[in-house]
Design a protein that fits this description.
alpha+beta, D-amino Acid Aminotransferase, Chain A, domain 1, D-amino Acid Aminotransferase, Chain A, domain 2, 8 helices, globular, binds 2-OXO-4-methylpentanoic acid
């Protein structure tokens, strides 16, 4: 274990008062660290900067399987410098949220779907499958111990970051035989700085996020590493994120930033299909498709080219563009720039507003959960 001082929240220079609140808590060696009362911290909470002081931890060894999970004080990991994850990138993660409702109940959104997706990803990364029942129980135990740390402001939630990494110290290239599973907790607010506002998006033509036969459909660290340079360059030019095109023809829309993409052209709502294996099957995407179909909105999962989008922009039929994801929920896109062309996106938000209202209503318990999407803690 490292001798460095453990700080239970990222060094938050902007909000020293929040750090103070968090550091007032004294963890003991035998009990999980106490709950972090971030609810009283000043806004904005932002995304991924603040951490609760308890995490779930478990280990896997070939021949023994997944061992018992335990809630432990959040601490630094000690890794062999030869750990496979550091060299060959065997890392799989998830992102889901728990919400503090107006009725005082805590709801996790689509826990089973997230665990199933993570389990599905293990095969592609040659990792052992998850013990889903054990991990589900562990996540609920973790949340029941940390309920008080869930922020209660509008749009705030506890973000859960499950992670599986290969920690066997071995430099031969083959699937590792030892793994760590952990779940970090991070109280969060808005993903994008400035809250809910139309995003400026650069259509990326040089880099690709994922290719057919690659890793695009699984939530693995490599996909995010592949995306960073283009996203950074876009940011330097005043954009919020990039829109990814397919790797083969560089024409068909795939994802927007870290989100799935939806467009409304005329009355048709379109989202790129998952069958090419290059797009992550988002849980918010799936929930949105279910709702749209129930509402009788014409919706297609079909390939759509950037030329078709530009033509719709010119014709004035590109009514809405938005992204869906756990972190941002439903985020409107206000501007698409493709090379020298600025594609006109309509200012309507009928569909994205309705989806956001419905999904967040179920998450916070103000709308009935007709689909069994919520697990009470
Ligand atoms: C999500 O929105 O589902 C994410 O996981 C985004 C995250 C990579 C920040």
């Amino acid at each position: 274990m490292s001798k460095r001082k453990r700080v239970p929240v990222s060094d938050d220079a902007e909000h020293p008062e929040r750090r103070e609140i968090l550091m007032m808590q004294e963890p003991t060696s035998t009990q999980p660290a106490p709950v972090v009362p971030v609810a009283s911290a000043p806004p904005p909470l932002g995304f991924g900067r603040v951490f609760a002081d308890t995490m779930l931890l478990g280990r896997y060894k070939e021949g023994k399987g997944w061992q018992e999970l335990s809630c432990v004080p959040r601490h630094e990991l000690s890794l062999d410098p030869a750990a496979a994850v550091l060299h060959y990138g065997q890392a799989l993660f998830e992102g889901l949220k728990a919400f503090y409702g107006a009725d005082g109940k805590v709801r996790v959104f689509r826990l089973d779907a997230h665990l199933a997706r993570m389990h599905g990803g293990t095969e592609r990364l040659a990792m052992p499958g998850l013990d889903i029942a054990k991990m589900r129980e562990g996540v609920l135990d973790l949340l029941s111990r940390t309920k008080g740390a869930i922020p209660r402001g509008k749009g705030e939630a506890m973000y859960l970051r499950p992670l599986v990494i290969a920690d066997e110290g071995f430099l031969g290239v083959r699937p590792a035989k030892e793994y760590i599973f952990l779940v970090l907790l991070s109280p969060v607010g808005d993903y994008y700085e400035g809250g809910m506002r139309p995003l400026k998006i650069w259509v990326e033509r040089e880099h690709v996020r994922a290719a057919p036969g690659g890793l695009g459909a699984v939530k693995t660290a490599a996909n995010y590493a592949a995306s960073l340079a283009a996203a950074h360059r876009a940011k330097e030019h005043g954009f919020d994120q990039v829109l990814w095109l397919d790797a083969v023809e560089r024409r068909y829309l795939e994802e927007v930033g870290t989100m799935n993409l939806f467009l409304r052209i005329g009355d048709e709502v379109i989202t790129p299909p998952l069958d090419g294996g290059t797009i992550l099957g988002g849980i918010t995407r799936q929930s949105s498709l279910t709702l749209l179909r129930e509402w009788g909105v014409p919706v297609s999962e079909r390939r759509i080219s950037i030329e078709e989008v530009a033509a719709a922009g010119k014709a004035g039929t590109l009514k809405e563009v938005f992204g869906t994801g756990t972190a941002a929920v439903v985020a409107p896109v206000g501007e698409l720039v493709w090379g020298k062309e600025r594609i006109h996106v309509g200012a309507e938000s009928t569909i994205s507003d309705r989806l956001r209202a419905e999904i967040t209503g179920v998450q916070y318990g103000t709308i009935e959960d007709k689909h069994g999407w919520v697990t009470l803690v």
